[in-house]
Structures are given as C-alpha cells and as structure tokens.
Amino acid sequence: MSEPTPTLLYLVPTPIGNLEDITLRAIRILGEVDTVLAEDTRTSGRLLQHLGLKKPMLSYHLHNEHQQVQRLLDRLEKGETMALVSDAGTPGISDPGFLLVRECLARGLKVECLPGATAFVPALLKSGFGAERFTFEGFLPVKKGRQTRLKELAQEHRTMIFYESPHRIVKTLEQLAEVLGPDRPASVSRELTKLFEETVTAPLAELAANFAARAAIKGEIVLVVQGREKEERIKQDRYATDDRDE
C-alpha cells in the first residue's frame, strides 16, 4: 500500500472573540506545523502566546497574498507544513485564503480545513429566521455595483447573511429598507461571543433608526435578513382555497 499523501496546508479557525472557542485539534495543529500564516501577526501572536505556543509566523493578508503565493508554494512543495489563520474565524470566508488553496490544489498539494468558529452561524441561528436555506453574501460592494446587487437581492427567497463594518451598518440598513421594504424582518448581531454581545431583531427601518441614534457603534457586525419566500407564503395562505380532492 502506498503511503497517504501528507497534509501541507491547514486552514485553522480561530476564536471570533472568546478565546475558549478553539478546538483541541486546532491547538495541536498550530503546535505541529512549521509555520503559521497570519492575517495580522500581532493578533495571531497574542493568541499563540495565550496557548503557550511559539511558532515562526509570516504575514499573509489581502494586500500581499498575490506576492506571497509563489514563495509559499515553493516552500510547501519542499515539504514545509503551514497553518493559515485569520484574525478571527475561519480563513477564506471574507478573508484571504482562497487563492492559496486553489494554487495548492492545482499543484497536487494536500489541503485540510478544520471545523471551528465562524461568525455567521451563531448570528443566523440567533436571528430566528429560516436556516434550512440561506445565502452568505459577505460584504456588499462599497461603491461600484452596490445598487445592482441590492436590487438583485430583492428577489432572494432565502435568508440572507451579510458582514458589515460599524461605520457602514446604518447606511446598509437604510438602503436595504429602501430596496426590500421597511418592514422586512432583520437581525443585527455584534460582538459575538464577547462580554457585550448583542443581537437586535426588528424590521429594517426600525433597526436603521436604532443604530442611527447611537453615539457609537463598536464591534464586528453580522446582519441577517429574512428572504421573500416567507412573506409571500403568508400572503398566499391568507387567501388560499381548499383545493384538496374531495
């Protein structure tokens, strides 16, 4: 029997706030790999220190990933093992990672992704909206293409999940209220797993007014918006006739 292909690149989820939210396997992998690729070496360095680990670290983020990929591939092909982490959550989800994974797979280098923390799952479940079918939209376009995307989402029947920054959340809520309707149910979660964790569920217009009235908004934000399907089903059921076979 041939030896199994060794894993060279690991995608390792890290806590989104509470440092207890890291798996035993993630700690073991971080301790075993040769190098840790970090979105911000200072942030990941504090986590490694908390875990009692000392590892060589390399910066790998949105602004240098294209320059770094070839050098990293050369090292991986020589047998070096690496763990890719982001500042919080699972790397590759609205964070760098896709490019390196794609190139590794193209070269036949084995990639393994560990399960673990990611912000949109608890936000989705805490919203109380349907989780059977949903679409993860990440960050909406900041300028070009934003209105086009919003209009496309007006027809979306699945629950929609967005990431948003504190300084843009009010504008996004206002725009969604305009396109989807002010009464569309939505949920804003921020500071998930942290001391001041908060989830507010209300119609889009109410959420926009709520957050616009605040002196300051802090923390990473996940916005969950109910899709069209449920609203349409309620209206249809109200006027439906009993068409069962007699």
What does this structure look like?
There is one protein chain. The protein is built from 9 helices and 10 strands. Helix 6 (146-153) links the parallel strand 6 and strand 7. By secondary structure, the protein is an alpha/beta fold. It is elongated, with a radius of gyration of 21 Å. Helix 3 packs parallel to helix 4 (98-106).
In short:
By secondary structure, the chain is α/β, with parallel strands linked by helices.
Kindly list the characteristics that best describe this protein.
246 residues; alpha/beta; five-stranded parallel beta sheet; five-stranded mixed beta sheet; 10 strands; elongated
3D shape: elongated
Largest sheet geometry: 5 strands, parallel
Order of helices and strands: EHEHEHEHEHEHEHEEHEH
Number of strands: 10
Q: What is the first-to-last residue Cα distance?
A: 65 Å
Family: Belongs to the methyltransferase superfamily. RsmI family.
Domain Tetrapyrrole methylase: 9-208
Organism: Hymenobacter duratus
Catalytic activity: cytidine(1402) in 16S rRNA + S-adenosyl-L-methionine = 2'-O-methylcytidine(1402) in 16S rRNA + S-adenosyl-L-homocysteine + H(+)
